[in-house]
Amino acid sequence: MRHMLLSTAAAAVVATLEEQLERAPWIQLLPVPGAGRGLFAAADIEQGMVVHEEAPMLCAPSPHALHSTCHHCLRPLAPGAASHHGGSSSSSPSSSSPSRMPFCSPTCSAAAQGEWAAAAARCDFGPLQQACREAGEKFPLMLARLACIQVQQQQQQQQDDKGGASGRGGDGSSARGSSISSAEAGEAGEAADATGAEGPLARGDPLTQLRHLCFANLAEPPPPWADMHRLLLHALRPLLEPELRRQLSLAWFCDAMARLHLNSFRVDTVPPLDASDPSALLRAAAASLAGSASAAHHTGSAAYLLASLLNHSCEPSLGVSFPRNNAVAAFTAARHIARGEQLTVSYVDAGQGLAARRQALAWAYGFTCRCPRCVEEAAAGGQ
Ligand SMILES: C[S@@+](CC[C@H](N)C(=O)[O-])C[C@H]1O[C@@H](n2cnc3c(N)ncnc32)[C@H](O)[C@@H]1O
User: Is 263 in the pocket of ligand 1 (CB under 6 A)?
Assistant: First the structure.
């Protein structure tokens, strides 16, 4: 069954998704009538168990947090702390340019340089970032990142072809194994493969990898997307070889935007305390007493390969958190989950009433939730 479903996904992604499922034999991928595919418990799972932990296939900081977030792992930066800037080569924009990218550590800076930041440093993303801030749109910045990954992978490939690919892994991916998880492991001394050290984008053509994620047909893409696409191409001008220009069509952009809208997670982290501000401790304590959501800081958005297959429930079996305070997501059993039960997360604020939840789900995801809570509340005439 698993193979039958996976055969619909891009071949380059299949191996990595299968690897993730092989590493988590308590998770099963199955069809869900009326909802495409979904993940299920293949064994009884105790409350509190971390069912899955995953580094993102693609992430980017929020347009509102560009100066306060590590651009590689989305960890919030301590106010006033030394950051490890990228984009400072002679070909990069000036230090006051919005394209100058802070990183939380030399490890993240080096990993980013190896994956995307060297290409990004040749571009000026200022106008695109500004437009995203004004429109409340974040996904064009993820697509800018994706284009930079593509450019660097192609350059690496060309170098390998010239140099005979000496010293590389069999699939040519080992030199690019500088994902968030391995950078994190370098910092914290943890096992590099805990969350898929290589990173799913280490293989295949990055621009087509998003095709694994589910898609909604848009009758008409929102008009601002054409403007965002134009600004993206403008920013990427220094990198645009004719072949890349052809690939980054408006149709590609709208397809990728639609997939990111349906599949991305908001990354909420906890901001570090400002040691020079004594009232910061009190504010943080008050926020944490008021609930972790208000203490959290939205540092960016991330798309995950396996976790994108989690369907929604207003009574989700999994909670989502970011225990490393970066974009590595953990999915924890919110209660006992019986073997065969679907693994779900809540796509919306589950504290809202029935009508608000239904409206948000219909508008953003195009379905009406029929989880037991919705059915019960609807029967009771709930709003
Ligand atoms: C992030 S994807 C989840 C994985 C998706 N089912 C797949 O096959 O790839 C989100 C989409 O799944 C579907 N979906 C998720 N939860 C659902 C639910 N409770 N009822 C109906 N459809 C759901 C909707 O089409 C939604 O836009």
Answer: yes
Q: Is 36 in the pocket of ligand 1 (CB under 6 A)?
A: yes
User: Letter for the amino acid at 18?
Assistant: E
pLDDT(91) > 50: no
Exposure string (b/e) for 138-151, b if CB count within 10 Å is 16 or more?
bbbbbbbbbbbbbb
281 lines ligand 1 (CB under 6 A): no
Pocket flag, ligand 1, residue 335 (CB < 6 Å): no
Average pLDDT of the chain to the nearest whole number: 82
Task: Give tens-digit pLDDT for 35-53.
Answer: 999 999 999 999 999 999 9
Distance between CA atoms of residues 78 and 74, nearest Å: 12
Cβ–Cβ < 8 Å for 50, 226: no
Residues 138-173: tens digit of each pLDDT = 999 999 999 999 999 999 988 888 886 544 333 333
CA-32 nearest atom, ligand 1:
6
Q: Note whether ipTM > 0.85 here.
A: yes
**CA nearest ligand 1 atom 27, residue:** 365
Q: Nearest CA to 37 among 65, 83, 11, 6?
A: 6
* Domain-wise residue ranges, the chain: 59-265
